[in-house]
Every structure is written in C-alpha cells, then in structure tokens.
Amino acid sequence: MIPYASAAEAEAALGRNLTAAEALWFRYSARVPDYLLFYHNILFLFVVFTLAPLPLALLELRAPWTISPYKLQPKIRLPRASFLQCYKDVMRAFVFVVGPLQLSSYPSVKLVGIRTGLPLPSLGEMVAQLVVYFLIEDYGNYWIHRLLHGRWGYEKIHRVHHEFTAPIGFAAPYAHWAEVLILGIPSFAGPAIAPGHMITFWLWIILRQAEAIETHCGYDFPFSPTKYIPFYGGAEYHDYHHYVGGQSQSNFASVFTYCDHLYGTDKGYRYHRAQMAKLREQWTTSDQNGGTDATNNNKKSD
C-alpha cells in the first residue's frame, strides 16, 4: 500500500510531479493492500490461459484452411472434444494447484522485496529485469526439464505433458500437478534474485505464460515478431520436442536455444532439420526435372 494520503503528498516526497502512469497507479493502488495487488496474478493467469490460445483454436476448428500452410504437424487434427477436455484439465489444475500456490506465496514475494509503491520503474529498468528473468527461468527450466526426461521423472510426472505429441496452445500448462509446482521454482527465481516493482512482476507472469502458449501453439508463422528475438526457440523448435515424444533428448530449453546448443542437446533437432532440407531440395529438383521432361515430350509430340 502506498504510504501517502494524497497525490500531493506523494509528489512532495518524490520532489517532483507524478508522471501520468504514476498518477494512474496512485489512484488504483493507494488503498489496496499489497497482498491483493499480488493476487492480481491469479486473474491474469486465468485470462491468459483462456484467451491467448483461443484465436488459433477457433481457426483450427472452424476455418483450418486459413492457417494450414503454417501447421507444423499438418496430418494431426484434434477434435473439438480434445480442446475442451484440455482446457477443463488446465482449469482444474489452475483451481487446485496454481491458485493455492499463488495464494500461499505472498510471504515469499514480500520477503524478497518486490515493491508496490512509488516511483514506478523506468521502461529501461523493466526491460532489463524482464530479460534477466527470462534468462534465469530458461536456464533453470532447461535442467529441470532434462531431469524430467529421465526414466522415473518421465514415467511418474512428465509423461502427462507429452500426451499431446502435436501440442496446442491450451496444452502449454497441461501437466502433472507436481510438474506445475516444480517449474514454479525457476519462474520465481528471477524476481527473487533481482526484485523489482509489482507491475514488472505482473508483466513477467503474463509474458512467460504467453510465451509458453506461443511455443506450444503448433504453428510457425513467418511474420511472428518473436522471430526477431535473438536465440528464441519458438513453436517450431519446441514442436520437434513433442513430436519425438518421451524418447526425446533434444530441445529441452523453454525459451531460448543457447542451453541446448551449449550442452549438445540440439543434435537430434539439427540432424532432423538437415534431413528435411535435403528432402525439400530433392522434391524441388524432381519437380523441376519433371516439368522439363513434360515440356520435351510435348515438343516431340508436336
């Protein structure tokens, strides 16, 4: 809760006028307890889990021809019942695992020093912290994910997430309850190491879940803005991991590609891409030769 009775008092304490964003934040949060501000995460997660995967899901079910050229596993078409069941399972985990975890983690948020007052962080500060959060989460997630692909971890826990060999956006948080809890550790590690403002924390939660949904969407769009992020894996990168399934020892990283490259766990993926490139080259050459032969045959007939 902001410790100022009025905006004028806040300006006097800061020694300057409030920015438009700070004035808006003051009006919204001045009388809201910190724990309620933190619990906004529950609402944000619900909205992201529900709305972010919805456009592609509706297009795939109602107008698949509009996005078929970009589908990574075009031979697999899930029925509406699979989408609905996946969403129900995710919401069940949300109610019984994610929600209670959020409700019980406020003391940790307070302990590490995530603040809610004024001044608000600058855009540069927020971006820098978000980059740190993504890098820390990605590194921690890589090792946890890799361990979960051991025999015991896969059979007892991670197998649930791999029920979708051709993932969909709704399946990004679809996992065993223990995996949901375990993967919460690297997600919170960044804010714990480099604590910032609650708004930065909100944005981190939203962006991380949106990124997970994007990498599980099952489509690779060449015009996606994430294509311009250095070392970003994306949907095509993670889709290969699901395509191979339980035996996969490749593409463990959640966001970037540097860990897999550094530790040699992208070899299967690189080999797969090289083989597909050769096949495409052969098909192109075959089509060109076929067209030439057909033209020559037509000339001979004339």
Automatic annotation (TrEMBL):
It is found in: Endoplasmic reticulum membrane. It comes from the Eukaryota. GO terms for biological process: lipid biosynthetic process. GO terms for molecular function: aldehyde oxygenase (deformylating) activity; iron ion binding; monooxygenase activity. Residues 131-265 form the Fatty acid hydroxylase domain. The chain crosses the membrane at residues 37-59. Signal peptide: none annotated. Belongs to the sterol desaturase family. It comes from Ananas comosus (Pineapple). It is a multi-pass membrane protein. It catalyses: a long-chain fatty aldehyde + 2 NADPH + O2 + H(+) = a long-chain alkane + formate + 2 NADP(+) + H2O. Keywords: Endoplasmic reticulum, Lyase, Membrane, Monooxygenase, NADP, Oxidoreductase, Transmembrane, Transmembrane helix. Its EC number is 4.1.99.5. This is aldehyde oxygenase (deformylating). It holds the Pfam family FA_hydroxylase. Residues 282-302 are annotated as: Disordered. GO terms for cellular component: endoplasmic reticulum membrane.
